[in-house]
């Protein structure tokens, strides 16, 4: 087995609690109507290693989802028999191989950096990540080339299933709150962070409901709050 997949004993990870989160957020004056419109929380993290999630995130930056998946497909095809290329294999690729899959030079450099830092231990495996607090993981991983806070927050929510993450820099989250609160303009990130304190420890669920509010609005199905 590759060294990067070796699992150390881990403390129990904090997990999303859909029923409790929905019940708590349904009582919120702003999120309550959104929860009732959307229904049950359907936030289901994918069982991926952080390394893979980060590489996939880099692929999806600033390109259409289909284009990103096509590039990833070509990269994976270089490693027959593997569900996803191991970092050692990525580092052993000849110069230009990643570019040949359609990735830009910047993305090639970012993917190689993620692979290098995974082999070196900076990027933890899933079990090791479960032992680390949210903010410690954020501070470790934003040191990677091409990885910002938002990318790590998506990892925390959708890969590691952390229950209390509110990505206040996310346009969809801020737009969802604008709609839910009946505001003319989106709140600034700092303001939304302060507002979101009342949703703790279910801020990941709150973000999911705010994303759904923005989605419903795009579809013309969002029911705006009634002014009193």
TrEMBL record:
Entry-linked CDD domains: ENDO3c
Keywords for the protein's UniProt record, in alphabetical order: DNA damage, DNA repair
InterPro entries tied to this protein: Alkylbase_DNA_Glycosylase/TA, DNA_glycosylase, HhH-GPD_domain
Enzyme Commission number: 3.2.2.21
Catalytic activity from the UniProt record: Hydrolysis of alkylated DNA, releasing 3-methyladenine, 3-methylguanine, 7-methylguanine and 7-methyladenine
Record domain HhH-GPD: where: 59-215
Highest taxon of source: Bacteria
Protein's recorded name: DNA-3-methyladenine glycosylase II
Source organism: Teichococcus vastitatis
């Amino acid at each position: 087995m590759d060294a990067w997949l070796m699992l150390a004993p881990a403390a129990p990870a904090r997990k999303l609690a859909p029923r409790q989160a929905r019940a708590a957020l349904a009582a919120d004056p702003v999120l309550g109507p959104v929860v009732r419109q959307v229904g049950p929380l359907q936030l289901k993290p994918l069982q991926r290693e952080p390394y893979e999630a980060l590489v996939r995130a880099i692929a999806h930056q600033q390109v259409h989802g289909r284009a990103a998946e096509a590039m990833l497909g070509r990269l994976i095809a270089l490693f027959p028999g593997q569900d996803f290329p191991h970092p050692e294999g990525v580092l052993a690729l000849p110069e230009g191989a990643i570019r040949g899959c359609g990735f830009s030079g910047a993305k090639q450099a970012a993917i190689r950096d993620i692979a290098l830092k995974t082999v070196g231990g900076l990027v933890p495996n899933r079990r090791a990540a479960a032992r680390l607090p949210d903010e410690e993981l954020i501070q470790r991983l934003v040191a990677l080339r091409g990885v910002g806070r938002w990318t790590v927050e998506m990892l925390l929510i959708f890969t590691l299933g952390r229950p209390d993450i509110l990505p206040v820099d996310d346009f969809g989250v801020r737009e969802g709150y604008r709609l839910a609160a009946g505001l003319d303009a989106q709140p600034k990130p700092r303001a939304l962070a302060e507002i979101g304190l009342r949703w703790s420890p279910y801020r990941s669920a709150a973000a999911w409901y705010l994303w759904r509010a923005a989605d419903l609005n795009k579809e013309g199905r969002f029911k705006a709050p009634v002014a009193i």
